């Protein structure tokens, strides 16, 4: 009798364990589905700006449904030169909050010239996000350089 009870407990435990594993797996997949991973869509590399210049990044979405975009910026300062090769170190970095865009909408950020060099990146959950990067003269509003992407 004791062996039969133990056998029933084991048989009963297996479906409970399997059910718990399946539930936790489906919960994890659902949680991942709610927050899509944002991937790098554009990267300026390090850009040196002149006096009264700023870097403007703009991303627009003309696809189906919604997408989100974030802007990341990294500021660099010189750390010394040797034989004409200069090294730079990161002094600050930040990432904007995600912005949700519907088809036909755009988002942009202006980054002021406050360090030796700026690197700006655009992240999105959709690789088809179109991105433009401009160097703008802050006193006149004139565009000095533009990189059209996507």
Describe the model.
The chain has 150 residues and is of the alpha+beta class. The protein has 2 domains: 1-35; 39-148. The protein is 22% helix and 53% strand. It contains 1 helix and 9 strands; from the N terminus they run αβββββββββ. The protein has one helix at residues 2-34, and strands at residues 39-47, 53-61, 66-82, 85-95, 99-102, 105-112, 117-124, 130-137, 143-148. Strands 1, 3, 4, 5 and 7 form a 5-stranded antiparallel sheet that branches. The protein has a 4-stranded antiparallel sheet with strand order 6-2-8-9, with no helix packed on it. The termini are far apart.
Q: For the report, how would you describe the main beta sheet?
A: 5 strands, antiparallel
Question: What is the CA-atom radius of gyration, in angstroms?
Answer: 25 Å
Q: Structural class, from secondary structure content?
A: alpha+beta
State the end-to-end CA separation.
Answer: 73 Å
Count of the separate structural domains: 2
List the helices and strands and how they pair.
Blueprint: H1 2-34, E1 39-47, E2 53-61, E3 66-82, E4 85-95, E5 99-102, E6 105-112, E7 117-124, E8 130-137, E9 143-148
Antiparallel strand pairs: 1-7, 2-6, 2-8, 3-4, 3-5, 3-7, 8-9
Can you give me a brief rundown of this structure?
With 150 residues, this protein is of the alpha+beta class. Helices cover 22% and strands 53% of the residues. It has 2 domains: 1-35; 39-148.
């Amino acid at each position: 009798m004791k062996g039969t009870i133990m056998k029933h407990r084991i048989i009963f435990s297996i479906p409970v364990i399997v059910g718990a594993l399946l539930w936790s797996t489906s919960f994890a997949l659902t949680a991942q589905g709610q927050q899509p991973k944002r991937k790098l869509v554009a990267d300026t590399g390090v850009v040196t700006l002149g006096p009264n210049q700023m870097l403007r990044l703009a991303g627009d979405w003309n696809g189906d449904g919604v997408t989100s975009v974030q802007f990341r910026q990294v500021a660099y300062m010189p750390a010394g030169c040797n034989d004409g090769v200069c090294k730079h170190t990161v002094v600050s970095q930040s990432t904007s909050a995600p912005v949700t865009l519907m088809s036909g909408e755009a988002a942009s950020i202006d980054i002021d010239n406050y360090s030796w060099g700026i690197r700006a990146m655009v992240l999105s959950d959709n690789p088809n996000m179109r991105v433009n990067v401009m160097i703008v003269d802050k006193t006149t509003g004139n565009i000095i350089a533009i990189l059209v992407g996507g």
